[in-house]
Design goal:
119 residues, mainly alpha, 77% helix, rod-shaped
């Protein structure tokens, strides 16, 4: 429910706090601390906005690398000499397990890379 913070409301709250401190304690150093806190809140809001933007060149680069990687895997699979005869059923299962694990790991890696700084 409260997983996102509204930067404008935080800045507004800090600004009100600073003004209240200045009204009640005009000569105290606490007012300068509140002023510094306000500057930090404003800078943090700008930085958070910049961080939240997706990096499109990164997305394109990761997409290209994924395509190149999959093309290399396809080339290897096409040129791989696989014997159609399997001596034991357990060898077939072992090969299928390895292939499935490889596909899942590559898919997970590509998905993870595409989600990085893209939301």
């Amino acid at each position: 429910m409260y997983r996102n913070l509204d930067a404008e409301k935080i800045i507004e709250t800090v600004r009100r706090l600073r003004d209240r401190i200045r009204e009640r304690f005009p000569e105290a150093g606490l007012g300068r601390v509140a002023e510094e806190l306000l500057r930090v809140a404003e800078k943090s809001a700008v930085k958070a906005e910049a961080i939240a933007r997706p990096l499109l060149p990164l997305r394109v680069g990761i997409g290209l690398l994924a395509i190149i990687f999959l093309a290399i895997l396809g080339w290897i699979a096409f040129h791989l000499k696989i014997s159609p005869e399997v001596d034991r059923f357990s060898e077939l299962l072992q090969a299928l397990d390895a292939a499935l694990n490889l596909v899942l790991l590559i898919g997970g890696a590509i998905f993870s890379c595409l989600r990085w700084r893209c939301a």
